[in-house]
Design a protein that fits this description.
Largest sheet: none
CATH superfamily: Tetracycline Repressor, domain 2
CATH topology: Tetracycline Repressor, domain 2
Radius of gyration: 20 Å
Structural class: mainly alpha
Number of strands: 0
CATH architecture: Orthogonal Bundle
Length: 196
């Protein structure tokens, strides 16, 4: 049996991540899913309702991914690297991060949607801050890293690399940026002591 609501969310997410909130209409979505616009309004009365549902579904997928990373990746930098790899699909598919794309249009968005986007990023920054603090405690993150500021740096770097590498070097460029970010977070390697 066809799950029209799920199809609408899937296609709408692709539209928003590729064109932005203002860059598509219910007519575009209806054509992709093969239904009438009135049928979309049955599931999502307004575009804001649709966008709120998109952010909620995206947030839930990220929650599951973040839980898996904490369970599977062994140390602070490995967790940051695994987090960064979550962005690779967007680079490969030439799609931006849903919440970052929406944030670009902040002033055009209804307040409840802006609030959900802020919550999404606040949650990620808090998660990264915990990962970095744990990495400091177990010695897998460089000792001079400040978790709060560095968590924001991680998000800003990855969101910027996603945007930039969609235009430039694709997944290769993104992987290089992720590698440089992770190298900057690792403790310095201690070489063999010099002989006297």
């Amino acid at each position: 049996m066809r799950d029209t609501r799920a199809e609408l969310l899937l296609q709408a997410e692709t539209l928003v991540r590729g064109r932005g909130y203002s860059g598509f209409s219910y007519a575009d979505l209806a054509a992709l899913v093969g239904i009438r616009k009135a049928s979309i309004h049955h599931h999502f009365p307004t575009k804001a309702d649709l966008a709120l549902a998109l952010v909620a579904a995206y947030d839930a997928r990220y929650d599951a991914a973040l839980d898996a990373i904490r369970a599977e990746a062994g140390d602070g930098v490995a967790r940051i690297e695994a987090y960064g790899r979550l962005y690779l699909g967007g680079v490969a598919d030439d799609l931006g991060c849903l919440c970052a794309v929406l944030a670009v249009e902040r002033d055009a968005l209804p307040e409840p949607l802006r609030a959900d986007i802020v919550r999404f990023f606040d949650k990620h920054i808090a998660w990264l801050e915990r990962v970095l603090a744990d990495g400091l405690a177990d010695g897998t993150v460089r000792a001079d890293v400040i978790p709060g500021a560095s968590a924001r740096l991680v998000v800003a770097t990855l969101e910027g690399a996603l945007l930039l590498e969609r235009m430039l070097a694709g997944t290769t460029g993104f992987r290089e940026t992720l590698g440089a970010l992770c190298d900057a977070l690792r403790p310095p390697r201690v070489g063999p002591m010099a002989r006297t």
